[in-house]
Specification:
The chain is α/β, with parallel strands linked by helices. It has 17 helices and 21 strands.
Length: 569
């Protein structure tokens, strides 16, 4: 990217937002149009879309159902936009976000091609000073990071990687012009959610595709299809019911978990239920029984069903064995859905290499060398995911009170209160940050909740002449403890080698990063905090030298209140 000349004029604002994806667009709209604040967005790319702007790899497709993967804050918008498919592709999601940006005239307040380098808090003036890569500076009272959970790519470093003579690409930074695989020998490393989407598409045109599988994965058919005219009519008449469902359930998806348990039914009935869920396709397979996500014995039966399906699809027994050698409970890693993933391994031009039994030793000028030999390829594709949830923030030099650095506070793992704020960083808000449900949900649902909570918080501050708010150390520590307690009640503990724990990044502190207590409970806790005048936060007025710290937060009491009142659950 060509850098522009430094601009020494400081742009003074009420709010600066970092990122122009779902989060940044709605936060801009909510603070600019609803509160009347001066707001700008800075975005590293040259267009809106956030994660979807960068992830344009072959087969890139949403794994949430399109009609739920939408903004629900505006009835007119819901009525105007029609999704074409059950699971929209990358290009359609970007078209949607451009439609939103144009409808609400958001682009006039977005500065593209502006990657944030630093954000320093000026304590004496209660201002954040933000510097971008082109050299422009912004000064703002409130800084909102909307950088996304899956936006900082992870390219593993293999010996000899710089000597590879072919082309290589990471799925998270795919070139605008695309990549032509026709007649090429392609090697792909990684079989997570992204890899499962790319492999069937690459195999269609490549002369040969060698898949280097690091970890075998479960996957359920997406059963993607166009949305019929009748279904579109149904949506237009039921938006309120759909909104209520996605905003009041555990994961923000348009389905609820069944009340029945795996062992409440006979073997024959259980098999029929699994079969029906498999045919229906999508993430709702997880919800066909209540206890699949919590009871290991129940989960084992769901896992066994999927493995039997894989073995019935994949013709080569040795390949099927590699694909079913899965080392984690179903759903304890991000559960992919697919279109013809397992069927692709029946093609004559596809080879599966298990790099657990035959590790990659090096990248050579001609390809990939494993313990068992060398595989010559013309193109390498890294479907190796992201340094999730923290790296996009840590890539920015963020300094709070007294020069406190975020990277120092998070040296042993991310610490937040509610995923919204960090002690020592006044008026800095993170949308779907570590410690929030975020990646365990259909993302627009927690995004809307976060944006509206931040909007209400700033409105409260303006009305009460409060100039700063920040999490307290105590509330932050209590919340981190609560995150650990909650995840230990789930089957996520059976996949501590997942990126949920940061295990895909060498040297990254291990710890479960999202909140596994469910979106409904989380929303109710956030509401409880706000209704108690932002208990757990320190608020103050720098002009008058006053600081108010509400009573110490007890997460246990908050959760008990929420569960007793069943608020939003």
């Amino acid at each position: 990217m060509k850098k522009s000349a430094p601009n020494n004029d400081v742009v003074k604002l009420d709010v600066l937002i970092v990122g122009a994806g779902f989060s940044g667009l709605y936060q801009l709209l909510s603070l600019r149009d609803k509160l009347g604040l001066s707001v700008k967005v800075v975005e590293a790319g040259d267009g809106v879309g956030g994660t979807w702007y960068w992830n344009r790899y072959p087969g890139a497709r949403c794994d949430s159902e399109s009609y739920a993967y939408s903004f629900y804050f505006d009835k007119e918008l819901l009525g105007e936009w029609q999704w074409s498919e059950r699971y929209p592709g990358q290009a359609e999601v970007v078209r949607y976000l451009n439609y939103v940006a144009d409808k609400f005239d958001l682009k006039r307040d977005i500065k593209f091609n502006s990657r944030v380098l630093s954000a320093h808090y000026n304590q004496s003036r209660n201002k954040w000073v933000v510097t971008t890569e082109p050299g422009q500076q912004f000064e703002c009272t409130y800084l909102v990071t909307a950088v996304g959970c899956l936006s900082s790519t992870n390219v593993p470093k293999f010996p000899g990687q710089d000597r590879f003579k072919g082309d290589w690409f990471h799925t998270g930074r795919w070139p605008n012009e695309g990549v032509d695989f026709t007649g090429k020998r392609v090697g792909q490393i990684g079989t997570g959610s992204t890899g499962i989407q790319t492999i069937p598409i690459i195999a269609e045109t490549a002369s040969h595709l060698t898949v280097f599988q690091r970890s075998a994965n479960y996957s359920v058919p997406a059963s993607n299809r166009p949305l019929s005219a009748d279904f579109q009519k149904y949506l237009r008449g039921n938006y309120e019911d759909i909104k209520k469902m996605i905003q009041s359930n555990t994961n923000g998806h348009p389905f609820v978990f069944s009340d029945r348990k795996v062992f409440d039914v006979s073997d024959e009935e259980r098999e029929e239920i699994f079969e029906e869920a498999w045919t229906r396709g999508g993430l709702s397979f997880r919800g066909c029984f209540q206890d699949v996500a919590f009871d290991k014995k129940a989960n084992d039966l769901a896992a066994d069903f999927i493995k039997r399906k894989i073995r019935s699809i994949v013709k080569n027994r040795e390949t099927a064995k590699k694909l079913t050698n899965i080392d984690h409970a179903f759903g304890s890693k991000r559960p992919p859905i697919d279109t013809n993933y397992f069927e692709t391994f029946n093609r004559n031009n596809v080879t599966l290499v298990d790099v657990k039994s035959s590790p990659i030793k090096s990248i050579t000028p001609k390809g990939v060398k494993t313990k068992d030999g060398e595989y010559e390829v013309d193109i390498l594709v890294f479907a190796t995911g992201f340094d999730a949830m923290t790296r996009a923030l840590l890539n920015i030099d963020i300094q709070g009170r007294d020069g406190l650095k975020l990277r120092d506070v998070w040296e042993d793992g991310p610490k937040t209160f509610l995923g919204l704020q960090v002690a020592g960083f006044p008026n800095l808000f993170t949308i779907t940050g570590p410690g929030s449900p975020s990646v365990l949900c259909n993302m627009p649902v927690p995004i809307e909740q976060h944006v509206e909570w931040i909007q209400d918080c700033i409105s409260y501050m303006k009305k009460n002449k409060i100039s700063f708010i920040e999490a307290t150390e105590g509330s932050m520590e209590k919340w981190v403890e609560h995150i650990d307690e909650v995840v230990n009640e789930t089957l996520f503990i059976h996949a501590k080698n997942s990126w949920y724990y940061g295990a895909n990044i060498p040297g990254k502190p291990r710890g479960f990063m999202p909140y596994a207590g469910g979106m409904a409970r989380y929303r109710a806790i956030c509401n409880d905090v706000a209704n108690q005048n932002y208990v757990g936060f320190k608020l103050g007025d720098t002009d008058r030298g006053k600081t108010y710290t509400p009573p110490k937060i007890s997460v246990d009491i908050l959760v008990e209140d929420v569960m007793a009142n069943r608020q939003g659950i």
